[in-house]
Specification:
The complex is a heterodimer. Helix content of chain A is about 40%, strand content about 15%. By secondary structure, chain A is an alpha/beta fold. Chain A has two domains: about 230 residues, Type I PLP-dependent aspartate aminotransferase-like (Major domain) (Aspartate Aminotransferase, domain 2, 3-Layer(aba) Sandwich), CATH 3.40.640.10; about 120 residues, Aspartate Aminotransferase, domain 1, CATH 3.90.1150.10. Chain A has a seven-stranded mixed sheet, with helices on both faces. In chain A, strand 4, helix 6 and strand 5 form a beta-alpha-beta unit. Chain A is globular. By secondary structure, chain B is an alpha/beta fold. In chain B, the strands form four sheets. A seven-stranded mixed sheet of chain B has the order 1-9-8-5-4-2-3, sandwiched between helices. Chain B is globular, with a radius of gyration of 21 Å. The chains are: A alpha/beta, B alpha/beta. At the A-B interface, helix 1, helix 2, helix 3, helix 4 and helix 7 of A face helix 1, helix 2, helix 3, helix 5 and helix 6 of B.
Chain lengths: ~375, ~375
């Protein structure tokens, strides 16, 4: 049996007619940018995240970048984030001209609130917690620290659409949150796309101007902005997918539950805290024999990934930040032991069982 | 009522009441079955990001304009911005450009961290090469000429000045695909040439998209990193960078329309020539500039008109979508206040902005419609 890590084709089949109809009607309408589909998507997405405003942009990286820029973060400032994320989290901070400051993560793979104090300096302006794998970071404690130190929170919720913690949604905790709609995300479009959530009305207004060249109307720029808009066709797809998101996320959780139940005695698994709804954008296990297990699974036709093998502070791009091996031991240890198993909305029970049996057949030390 | 900050719904609503429209997309995509068939193939392949059709598009662009490299990016704005970044331009640097342009030109310079320095336009409404040298300072790193409306700048003179002062050139060719001057295609003289694929451009897609061309392997390789998070491969990031990719889906649309580009460019030129001929007798109208050795592609057909605002209002009442591209020059925008310019600093640009009006010359305009436009303009000035 071959078990693919993702299978976008199967997901597409379920919505094929709706999506093609939208393509056809939008192309016939001739309205491709900042139109009614985007407004519909933004309204629904804001409701999903329990916030007042959602602002569609070109991609998840820009969602973070625009949030930072609109909050006035730039050269001379510092922003704290996790070193075990996708490069876009740190990348968006670096793009503003601010300095990226990493802080180690805990066993939940998210920023460890206890370590944050050490990373805060006079120049710190914001914290960017990453809800990695679709698990919301410990936002109550992070929120307290931010309040005490007068820091803003910009959530990197790229992997966490629909996730929640103690009744509050990913995207609801910070002054702003950035989501990705990239094809490999739980809620995805057919190209690049992203969205920002906020309940701050003036920030929302500013973001809508920022994403469209800084234009306050056709003929006047309020400030010099950029071009970062969610295409109408992608917004229409996202509207269709929002209707099935809860069902698809539920399937992610079912699969995760099944993996954890069957594998918790042979590898290290993650479990939800009470009150936590992780949407398992990725399902990760930990084992000291990670590379051997990955090879074993590959031979059995099971595709797995490592998200990610090289922490951000050890990337060439971070060489000027002054970190080295040993700077963030928890993150570094995770990078050597984590393995992401296939999890997607259309993975069948048979495939899940095959993955489990394949892992069980590996001769662990 | 649209959300704050998005004025396009209201504008779109107004445009729909026009009978002769600038926006021709409804006609252009009245039958999209072939594009939809190709998208149907894409969604089974799931090759959504930097996929096969992006490669194909880049190869075809290289052949079309004779460049060594082409790179698809998220938008024309990003093509400009990423070009400046690839050339190492940022904080403390100055970039010379024209005050008569679309906002994105200046936005790209500011986003890169540099300061825009304006030089006035000449008789072709493009940056006047004779004014560039006086704008050069110790901090100047590049010239960013804009081929406005599809009429290329005098790149021979601009390139000589840039060479003499050791400046880079980034060409804003967003309006000017296939245009040429003195034998050079727009976008081919500078270090990079930047193009937009926005829905209303001569070569367009179903959303935002752009690309740039260059002959420099160094710039090309930097650009591949800059547009894709600085990733050398899946796991290695050599520089914190950006996400700005031409969607595979949009590349499918672009490839489809590339087949028609030369024809539709010829049609635009023919429509422009027809207007030239019919409007020549109206004293209150100044026809578009016609420098020698130029093929202009009329992304916009821009005339200058006496009592311009009244004329626009009159034409719009007649349901003719005459637009103004654009009424306020960049140095007088609210966003430019911090640069300290005043009215009178660039008199040519200001006079152009006060008098220009654009008439539709897209491929779906008919001579009958053009005749009506001319008749109404004559009526206006007779009254």
């Amino acid at each position: 049996m071959q078990v693919k890590f993702v299978d976008l084709g199967r997901q597409y089949s379920e919505l094929r007619e709706d999506i093609l109809t939208s393509f056809d009607s939008i192309s016939k309408s001739g309205w491709f940018v900042l139109g009614p589909n985007l407004e519909e998507f933004e309204e629904h997405f804001a409701a999903l995240c329990h916030v007042k405003h959602a602002i569609g942009v070109a991609n998840g990286s820009d969602a973070l970048l625009l949030s930072l820029l609109a909050l006035g973060i730039g050269p001379g400032d510092e922003v704290i984030t996790a070193p075990n994320s996708f490069v876009a989290s740190a990348g968006s901070i670096a793009r503003t001209g601010a300095r990226v400051v990493f802080s180690d993560v805990g066993d939940d793979m998210n920023l460890d609130p206890k370590k944050l104090a050490d990373a805060i300096t006079d120049r710190t302006k914001a914290i960017m917690p990453v809800h990695l794998t679709g698990r919301v970071a410990q936002m109550e404690e992070i929120g307290n620290i931010a309040r005490q130190n007068h820091l803003k929170i910009i959530e990197d919720a790229a992997q966490a659409v629909g996730a929640s913690r103690n009744g509050r949604m990913a995207g609801e905790f910070g002054i702003a949150a950035g989501f990705s709609l990239h094809p490999l995300k739980n809620l995805f479009v057919h190209g690049d796309g992203g969205v920002i959530t906020t309940s701050d009305g003036s920030l929302a207004d500013s973001l809508r101007v920022y994403r469209n060249h800084g234009l306050k109307n056709r003929d006047e720029t309020a400030f010099w902005g950029i071009n970062s808009r969610l295409d109408e066709i992608q917004a229409a797809i996202a509207v269709h997918k929002l209707k099935v998101l809860e069902q698809w996320n539920r399937r992610h959780r079912e699969i995760a539950c099944c993996y954890t139940e069957e594998l918790k005695d042979i590898v290290t698994t993650f479990e939800d805290d009470p009150g936590e709804v992780c949407v398992y954008h990725r399902y990760m296990i930990r084992t000291s024999q990670r590379n051997e297990l990955q090879k074993h699974l590959e031979e059995r036709g099971v595709e797995t990934k490592v998200n990610y093998p090289i922490p951000l502070h050890l990337q060439e791009a971070a060489r000027d930040l002054g970190y080295g091996v040993g700077s963030f031991p928890v993150c570094e240890q995770l990078a050597e032991t984590i393995l992401s198993l296939p999890v997607h909305s259309h993975l069948t029970d048979d495939e899940v069982n095959y993955v489990i049996q394949s892992i069980k057949s590996f001769p662990f030390d | 009522m649209s959300a704050a900050g998005n004025f396009l719904p209201d504008q779109y609503d107004r445009d729909q009441h026009m009978s002769i429209n600038h926006n021709y997309l409804v006609e252009q995509f009245s039958d999209s079955s072939e594009i939809l068939r190709k998208i149907g193939d894409l969604v089974t392949r799931c090759d959504y990001t930097l996929g096969r059709e992006v490669d194909e598009f880049e190869e075809r662009i290289c052949k079309l304009v004779g460049s060594k490299f082409a790179v698809g990016v998220g938008s024309g704005t990003d093509a400009l911005f990423l070009s400046l970044k690839a050339l190492g331009i940022g904080e403390g640097d100055e970039v010379i450009t024209t005050p008569y342009t679309f906002y994105a030109t200046v936005g790209a310079i500011v986003t890169a961290g540099a300061k825009p320095i304006f030089a006035d336009v000449g008789s072709d409404y493009n940056i006047d090469p004779g004014r560039i040298e006086e704008a050069i300072s110790d901090r100047t790193k590049a010239v960013l000429p804009v081929h406005w409306a599809g009429l290329p700048c005098d790149m021979t003179r601009i390139a000589n000045i840039a060479r003499k002062h050791g400046l880079s050139i980034v060409e804003d060719s967003c309006h000017a695909i296939l245009a040429h001057r003195d034998g050079n295609f727009a976008g081919r003289v500078g270090d990079t040439g930047c193009f937009s694929l926005h829905p209303l451009k001569n070569l367009n897609v179903w959303g935002d998209g752009g690309f740039l061309v260059t002959d420099s392997k160094n710039i090309y390789e930097k650009m591949l990193l800059l547009r894709n998070h600085g990733l050398v491969d899946r796991d290695h990031c050599s520089v914190f960078a950006y996400n700005s990719r031409l969607d595979t889906l949009q590349a499918i649309v672009a490839n489809h329309l590339l087949n028609k580009l030369e024809n539709l460019t010829d049609t635009r030129i023919a429509h422009a020539n027809y207007f030239d001929e019919k409007l020549a007798s109206i004293d209150e109208i100044t026809l578009p500039p016609h420098p020698e050795n130029v093929k202009q592609v009329y992304h916009l057909y821009v005339i200058r008109a006496k009592r311009r605002n009244e004329l626009q209002e009159f034409l719009q009442q007649q349901r003719i979508d005459a637009k103004i591209h654009y009424p306020v020059p960049m140095h007088l925008q609210p966003a430019s206040v911090k640069f300290g310019y005043s009215p009178g600093d660039f008199p040519n640009s200001e006079a152009v902005c006060d008098s220009v009006i654009s008439l539709p010359v897209h491929e779906f305009v008919t001579h009958e419609q053009q005749n009506l436009v001319v008749k109404k303009i004559k009526e206006f000035y007779a009254s």
